[in-house]
Specification:
Elements lengths: L2 E2 L1 E4 L15 H14 L3 E3 L7 H13 L7 E7 L2 H11 L5 E8 L2 H7 L4 H18 L3 E6 L6 H14 L3 E6 L6 H18 L4 E6 L6 H10 L4 E4 L13 H10 L1 H4 L1 E2 L7 H12 L16 E2 L2 H9 L18 E2 L7 H10 L7 H17 L5 H14 L13 E9 L6 E8 L2 E8 L3 H13 L4 E9 L8 E9 L2 E9 L2 H23 L2 H4 L4
Helix pairs in contact: 1-2, 1-11, 2-3, 3-5, 5-6, 6-7, 7-8, 8-9, 12-13, 14-15, 16-17
Bound molecules: 3-methyl-2-oxobutanoic acid and zinc ion (ZN).
């Protein structure tokens, strides 16, 4: 029978330790609501003794998100009374509150950090657990730096705090030093002894990613008996981060025959959670990050696109739909082959192309793809139109009449009236508009929207630098929503305002393309 693995999410505590990622109370509550929707079992909401602000935020999470029995709310304390009191007062409003405390067990921590004897530290831990138990029934004890601790001392500590009443024992690889086989063997031994002592106490792991092995170590622990895993969304956390929740969960699902373990996670909420965390914390997700990176389901090489179009399982082990994405993404670039381009054209309705016409259009595609990094649907329409015009076909449909192109723009940034003016071409016509906004980008997008009159909601705006130095390219990625559909668009330019305008224009043109695509093939067919 498959085992249940408890998922303890520490995005709001270990994740928030990332420099610059501090959240305010409202953001913490919103992320906690989303984590609940995702289906985590336990939320670690913060470190209340660190500041009044964090205390208030943890308290708000406990009261607003923790008022149901299906989720446990906790927060971190050092093994000292003041911290434990602070956690208690912050989480007690939850229906299922827990006190989590941490104290080191490695020689480095005991001798160098605390300058105490092992016996003294063990006693401090036991006393702290006994005290916490007078406040709440659920107490987790973390043996900090467990993976670098002398095993018998680690066990002596665990045995003592279990006898003192700890209900969960968390074994952290605090500095990401562990190696999967070695860590798995340690967990196996601990699990064996713990289950003999008290089978109701959960064995948990908390792995850091300093050597890139956090997910592997977490999975090795599950294989060797761990009941619970501590993770963060997008793998954020102290230094190189923690085990990524989405990686651990999708590995358990995808390789179920190996792990024979399940979580309660609703995987379809993974992408929503990842995007929320990334945007609130201002932490970009590495593009090639497993599961939640921009390219995790994007296929660009011609060989792969051809294989996928023949059979998805040729290059796809996780379906994008399973993590809440619409579909796999075949990005049309200069490396895309004929099969992918043909498929994209067919989706736009060009399914009856004569072989020589397809070849001509494919040539046009390659020329544009060489000049432009990614080719969008609206570019394909224009390539088709240009091809037919050039080859003197009659009754050519003017697809370019439907699409917008930014010709010029001016943006004024000041605190009173951030404003923008734009000049946009649509087919043979040129339009101008100006707008004032809450900021320069808002003004720019409002001015463009006045011309396009296509109503979209800006869901995400993300800007990053592609290269270094004063000629650095600014890359803008946006997600807009129109009629319940999400459209992702990108653009890059040395002028970030231009990149912002081009990205928005690409998104609008994608909405236009989608509208055209809905028109029947016969109506769209070019009469020759
Ligand atoms: O990495 C660590 O050891 C921790 C503990 C507080 C669990 O974050
Ligand atoms: Zn940690």
């Amino acid at each position: 029978m498959s085992r249940k693995i408890w998922v303890f999410d520490t995005t709001l505590r270990d994740g928030e330790q990332v420099p610059g990622a501090k959240l305010n109370l409202y953001e913490k509550v919103e992320i906690a609501q989303q984590l609940k929707k995702l289906g985590v079992d336990i939320i670690e909401a913060g470190f209340p003794a660190s500041s009044q602000g964090d205390f208030d935020a943890v308290q708000a999470v406990a009261q607003k998100v923790g008022k149901t029995s299906d989720i446990m709310i906790t927060a971190l304390a050092r093994a000292v009374q003041a911290d434990i009191d602070s956690v208690y007062h912050a989480v007690k409003g939850a229906e299922n509150p827990m006190i989590h405390m941490v104290l080191g067990t490695s020689d480095i921590h005991v001798e160098k950090k605390f300058s105490k004897s092992k016996d003294q530290i063990l006693q401090i831990g036991v006393d702290a657990v006994k005290y916490a138990k007078t406040l709440l029934p659920e107490v987790q004890y973390s043996t900090e730096d467990a993976s670098r601790s002398e095993f018998e001392y680690l066990w002596k500590t665990i045995e003592a705090v279990m006898k003192a009443g700890a209900t969960m024992i968390n074994v952290p690889d605090t500095v990401g030093y562990a190696e999967p086989e070695e860590f798995g063997a340690m967990i196996y031994k601990l699990n064996d002894r713990m289950k003999n002592l008290n089978p109701n106490v959960l064995l948990s792991v908390h792995c850091h990613n300093d050597l890139g092995m956090a997910t592997a170590n977490t999975l090795a622990a599950i294989k060797n008996g761990a009941d619970k895993v501590e993770c963060t969304i997008n793998g954020i956390g102290e230094r190189a981060g923690n085990a990524a929740l989405e990686e651990v969960v999708m590995a358990l699902n995808t390789r179920h025959a190996i792990y024979n373990a399940d979580t309660r996670i609703n995987t379809k909420e993974i992408m929503n959670t990842s995007r929320l965390v990334s945007s609130f914390m201002g932490l970009d997700v590495q593009v090639n990050k497993a599961i939640t990176g921009d390219n995790a389901f994007a296929h660009s090489s011609g060989i792969h696109q051809d294989g996928l179009l023949k059979s998805r399982d040729a290059y796809e082990i996780v379906h994008p739909e399973d993590v809440g994405l619409d579909d796999m993404e075949l990005i049309l670039t200069a490396r895309s082959g004929r099969h992918a381009v043909k498929n994209a054209l067919e989706k736009l309705g060009f399914s009856q192309l004569a072989p020589e016409d397809f070849e001509g259009i494919f040539e046009g595609f390659l020329a544009l793809a060489d000049a432009k990094k990614e080719v969008y649907d609206h570019d394909l329409y224009v390539i088709v139109e240009n091809y037919y015009e050039k080859h003197d076909k009659t009754n050519v449909t003017n697809y370019s009449d439907h699409f917008f192109e930014v010709e010029d723009l001016q943006v004024i940034s000041n605190s009173s009236f951030p404003s923008a003016s734009v000049k946009i071409r649509k087919g043979g016509e040129v339009f101008k508009a100006s707008a004032v906004g809450t900021g320069p980008i808002d003004a720019l997008y409002s001015a463009i929207a006045e011309i396009t009159t296509i109503k979209v909601k800006l869901v995400e705006y993300d800007i990053s630098s592609v290269s270094r130095g004063k000629d650095a390219l600014g890359k803008v990625k946006i997600i807009v929503e129109h009629d319940g559909e999400k459209y992702i668009a990108k653009a890059a330019d040395t002028d970030i305002l231009k990149a912002s305008a081009f990205a928005y224009m690409n998104a609008i043109n994608s909405v236009v393309s989608a509208g055209l695509r809905k028109v029947s093939v016969e109506e769209m067919a070019i009469t020759r």
